[in-house]
């Protein structure tokens, strides 16, 4: 039997609070990339896994989607939460989104929403996104000269965009925000509904109750929105199962705005922390598409996904047995010294920028184009009107092992 020893630095992967401490996190990741790029992690309450920290290895795993499967462990969760999720699915409930699925079923289900995120659809949505960007910059001007940028701006702007795409009433937006923060913030004391998996599961049940009612309405009265496309979507001629349909709503309604919110807030903080880059971008707005990619790389809102080996294999010479899991450390990949020149320098003109913040391969983020559009629109509206900006307090990051970023960004500013 092979004896596996856990590297002290690898404990960060099983510690949600590590993601609220950039210095600690990146010190560990940098060491692992150089010394132990496929690190064994055996740290309760999680089941064991290998943490993969190099950009090239993560891309290789994402390419080989027939060898490395999303099921049954698509993301890092406690053993107790994994068991509860499995039991719920076996009972015809639970969550089975695109990130949980493998081909060929994944490809067929993904196609239901794909047209809503293609270039033609994005061009049709551009005006609404620009309008909302102006609304929230105007709001900054109204509430200034200080605000908590996260709670007052960055969580709301992408939320309004995705809720508009789904066709949901504005009165429901605050509820969707709360449920999203509870779902993704299960490790964050400020957001979590409860501490046990059963308590956290209630958030999912509330999502399902809301979207079950929406499904029945859209099937009886179809409209021209993404919610109707999901409710009436078919795979092999059959309507989506209740689990797949409701899970589709959940992933669009949550990942469709929460990740973008973190990128916008983290992007603004990076500009504040790097005033030379802020001045450079304000002086040459043609750099905006490159700056958007750098903000996404810098923040990497989705910290990880996991894959399980369908057969005995190896990664960088490390043997991995069928049924064992790997953790794809996107945060580490996006600071890989072999891929990015000066990876710890925020550079609004970085080109090329082969970040993995949207994943890679068949699971590449469905809403990537929308996220890029929103970030671009917001900063294109903000920067020409921005005379000055600085921190008005200490920024705070969420404790998480999955999706996260800034939960508070107090700023002081002057807008014209």
UniProtKB/TrEMBL annotation:
InterPro entries: Cyt_P450, Cyt_P450_B, Cyt_P450_CS, Cyt_P450_sf. GO terms for molecular function: cholest-4-en-3-one 26-monooxygenase activity; heme binding; iron ion binding; steroid hydroxylase activity. CDD domains: CYP142-like (cd11033). Pfam families: p450. Keywords: Cholesterol metabolism, Heme, Iron, Lipid degradation, Lipid metabolism, Metal-binding, Monooxygenase, Oxidoreductase, Steroid metabolism, Sterol metabolism. Pathway: Steroid metabolism; cholesterol degradation. Its cofactor is heme. GO terms for biological process: cholesterol catabolic process. The keyword rRNA-binding does not apply. Belongs to the cytochrome P450 family. This is Steroid C26-monooxygenase. The lineage of its organism: Bacteria, Bacillati, Actinomycetota, Actinomycetes, Mycobacteriales.
